[in-house]
Amino acid sequence: MRSPHPEQWRQRNQQKKAAGRRLLTLTASNRHTLTAHWLDPQDGSVHAESLSHAGTFPSLTPVLPEVAWDEREIHDLFGDVPEDHPDLRPLVRTPRWPQAFHPLARSQTSPPNWHDVEPDNPAKLVAGEGITVMKVGPTHAGVIESGHFVFSLIGENVLHLDLHLFQNHRGIEALLEQRPVAAVAPLVTRICAADTVSHQTNWALAIEAMAGYQSAEELRWRRVILLEAERVLSHLNDLAQIPAGVGFQVAQQRALAMKETWQRGLKALFGHRLLFDTVGPGWAQKPSIDGIFILIDNLRQAFKPWRALVQSHHGFMDRMHAVGVVRQASAERLGAEGVAARAAGTSFDARTTMPLYQGLSIVPVVQRGGDVQARFLVRLDELEASLRIIEESATRLRRSPTADPPWVLPHDLTGHVVTYTESPHGLNVHDVEIQAGRTARYHVRPATYRNWPLLAHAVAGNAVADFPLINKSFELCYSCTDR
Q: Are 37 and 183 members of one domain?
């Protein structure tokens, strides 16, 4: 591979961004190569820019701030150095890691000798008279996953929030290397519970694309139903947590009751409350179509009065207004995904380009305020839109009697595919390379990976007491980040 000049690497990728394309992944390999995959939202085509290097490469972060975390992670896991990166502090690695240990570089064959020191990485703080530093986590009072937040405060105002995630980094990408194709699904399914159907679908689409498998119409509708059922579940959870952030307990408890009813319905229809193990190459769980319509009808009976309750409560709606604002320019500059992007005026929704949704009416729900209220309103409308998509897909499924074509997973499968889905949190991407039936490289770029830095941006300038509300309005996934 002929490597472009460093400035050409930056210019080519910067031009893709300027042309309105969306960055899917920035994937590194232990062959000292980088590949940036870009999606054209107009026609759904994917374009790649590649760079070979000798251990150092020109950082894209100065011109594309959205890849700041990608390049820090590449530095930690491969040892490759992004030159001119403005903040090359450790992201995944901790002081306990030996200096020469880079788990995806394959430069070390024996287990590392961990340093017996405190695991906290240095925080980026604001210095000056009257500055207070407040740390939250990584262990929290609630039953949530681990995240460490370091606030620089002046009085009650947040000047800067430094995020320290990856507290329970599991090394999924390393575990997937050289794994037989038939043994990949259990790990991919459990990358995270909130976006599990999205992850499973990405894996299935990758294998089917490599094998040239043509799915039946019925299979497509079953997958759409599962993806949208997951979106409804996620949005019900988030719509419950936002009122909890301001003490609106009636709204929270009623929303949690709707969520529980929906999960019990998922268990009855698909066999699992979180929809684990429901999608795979060549198949997806078959639900009762009548059961789908009954579940939706039951949810609507509860959701309609609940929505009227929260939207008519002026104190609640006013409390969300102008809090945690993300402007459209910031959302686009930082690569915002999903609800966070659409609440800031960006209309992109990957479902509009996915072949899976072809023939369905997908109209992105957009708000302009960019605040907590906008993110709340987007979820309200998206939930109702998802119910309509499920109904339409179930109706088509009833008219599609064809069964899944018999198919056996090829044992010698070889190929390289990038797949994506619109998860409940936004654009979720898998970069999958298979050689002779085993995974050579598997890179996962979940939507929350882009939105965590955006959360820190949204918190700055607000009162520290607003943090729980802002945080819940994003309701990001720790597990996807800790992959």
A: no
